[in-house]
């Protein structure tokens, strides 16, 4: 195997499934009912999260460049090449998601459709690309794993939002995003598996960094992540009397992926993955802002 087959495959899948953004002109916006508008109003932090794909990619490149400078072996740097390549797809597709959500939010909060024209690019760069300096929670292995496992959350969140909204065009727009996120799960899984199998040193390092990779969301790189987490929790559908259902769906997927990546070396049971998640949610509950801290064992310091 050349090592490029997986990236070629998922590059083609992205091409084949590329949805038409219709030049970000959505004539159906005025038809949204009150229920749909209320849901869209909860999605401003999710818009920020989508755009922060720009920051997490920048931080990822920054990490690898620094690792190379600081003596990380060249053959191991080279094994990351397909992941470098896939980051381009992520940056582009997450940007498309951000524009769709930004446009929807701008319309329901202002009644205007001039969203893209009124974005200040300097503010954009500051908020969504260069926001990572004070939120370096990861090493390179936990970071790439975080990119993978966060897509599980993204997919499940969009699945529930799609189920909730009424307007068929809004449903379709959000379903396009959901499908991209699901493809990102498959691509990251396959690409990380290739890397892990390329050299036992990768597997050892990935296992050592697994906990944070499994639990932290790569969108924690931007300012409003925890505000969004608390705001959007109610959007996860749950069966009456079974509030754990969304967590169970997420846990099941993450556990399946752990098995796929690490086989018998996966250190966590499904129950442990679920308990870790619940702990994380409890800690994050009620907070809106966080930054990196050396003083905390989680490296998260809540500042609001
Ligand atoms: Fe996305
Ligand atoms: Fe994604």
SSE layout and pairings?
Layout: H1 5-16, H2 34-40, H3 44-51, H4 53-69, H5 74-79, H6 81-110, H7 115-118, H8 121-128, H9 140-164, H10 168-198, H11 200-208, H12 210-215, H13 225-232, H14 245-262, H15 270-284, E1 290-292, E2 300-302
Antiparallel strand pairs: 1-2
Bound molecules: fe (ii) ion (FE2) (2 copies).
Residues 50, 94, 97, 154, 177, 181 line the site of one fe (ii) ion.
H/I helix tally: 15
- Output the radius of gyration: 19 Å
CATH top level assignment: Mainly Alpha
Count of structural domains? 1
What name does the CATH topology carry?
Answer: Ribonucleotide Reductase, subunit A
| Biggest sheet: strand arrangement | 1-2
First-residue to last-residue Cα separation: 49 Å
Please report which band the strand proportion falls in: under 5%, 5-15%, 15-25%, 25-35%, 35-45% or over 45%.
Answer: under 5%
Number of strands: 2
By CATH, the superfamily comes out as Ribonucleotide Reductase, subunit A
Determine the oligomeric state from the structure.
Answer: single chain
Order of helices and strands: HHHHHHHHHHHHHHHEE
Could you characterize what this model shows?
By secondary structure, the protein is mainly alpha-helical. It has one domain (5-302): Ribonucleotide Reductase, subunit A, CATH 1.10.620.20. It has 15 helices and 2 strands. Strands 1-2 form a two-stranded antiparallel sheet. One fe (ii) ion binds next to α9 and α10.
